[in-house]
Specification:
heterodimer, A: alpha/beta, Rossmann fold, 3 domains, 4-stranded parallel β-sheet, 17 helices, 11 strands, globular, B: alpha+beta, SH3 type barrels, 5-stranded antiparallel β-sheet, 1 helix, 25% helix, 40% strand, elongated
Amino acid sequence: MTLADGFRDTELARGVLAGIRQASTRQVRLMEFCGGHTVAIMRHGIRQLLPPTIEMLSGPGCPVCVTDNSDLDKALALARLPGVILATFGDMLKVPGSRSSLQEARAEGADVRIVYSTLDALDIAGQNPACRVVFLGVGFETTAPTVAASVLQAAKGGVPNYYVLSMHKVCPPAIRAILDSGEVKVSGLICPGHVSAVAGSRAWDFIALDYGIPCVVSGFEPLDILQAVRMLVDQLEKGESRVEIAYRRGVTPDGNRRALEVMAQVFEPCPARWRGLGAVPGSGLRLRDAYRRFDAEAAFDFDPGPTVEPEGCICGEVLRAVRTPRDCGLFRTVCTPASPVGPCMVSSEGACAACYLYGAADE
Amino acid sequence: MCLAVPALVKSIDGLEAEVDLGGVTRRTSLMLAPEAKVGDYVLLHAGYAISVLDQGEAEETLSILREMARATADGGA
């Protein structure tokens, strides 16, 4: 029996679903921001189980998917430099940049290593003193503190050959950008669970206050998601908009203060480019001056070359929820998980990959 | 990418812990969750505990879900 088992109880799910069907009278569109939620919803067939009054949209909450090609090209250029070891989470390996992926660069001789944690990257730096180890920093508020922690450890332990290429992003400015664009009408938002474990549910207060959109922070088990849907439906039926937490075992209003402190000590906000959204002010994280010597962009001389977008790929529109994977002419034909054209087909949390793997029942 | 899984803290040595992850033992950093104690469940992400799970809240949430299901079965809402 693990902590998650109770949240997979089929009989209980049936009962909660019946409650949702009974409570939902208004037509609503709920967006799950997080790619982890997209996968859980598709895997468990939750869209098909919900009543026709509830439409679900997938948002841009997949860090791999929203990494812009211009940033990917920087990682590729760094990986190809002699004496460089590029350490990355496995999700990034097959993402196509303008001219190749890290996997292709590795096949051509670049030293690209998959790590589970920044702690592994620090070990690689210790074991290879003659090389310079660059960690590819991709991820939201969940991941950025772990990378910040590695920089603090490298500073304390005197690891001279460790660097970070920071492509980290924070979520609230991206949600604001989507809502401000007015391209999609969203009635309620399922807020990311593990981003909120760090950032706290207060990070979403502005959505309820400024946009009048109810928010519920959800966990990732099927019952977590059904509970979040029920709580959103209840707010929408009453015409309310506030931030609630369904995932109370993991999330508090204030989040993880220690993780936020570590993140703020090492990183500062900066503009960042999101695939699909373009430049979003204050949505990126760069190393502060005190830790500049760990900044791969400042420490290396490299040329990422001109950025080229894949022809025919609509990942940008999928990430903005204005089109679905099935609207793409490349989906399932040219673009597959084995031979992906765009990042949403590469990442295990990408909307296209989820639709490819679990979408048959979603027709 | 934001995948995090519950893991049970088995032992602690400074800011490092050994956690049980479905029968597999892993070393984990407690740098971001130094308040974790032996016997706690932590959310494990990329080698770091990023929060301590509240087992009392987990039970409470399951009770709320059971109540949601029961109220519907009884014809209430």
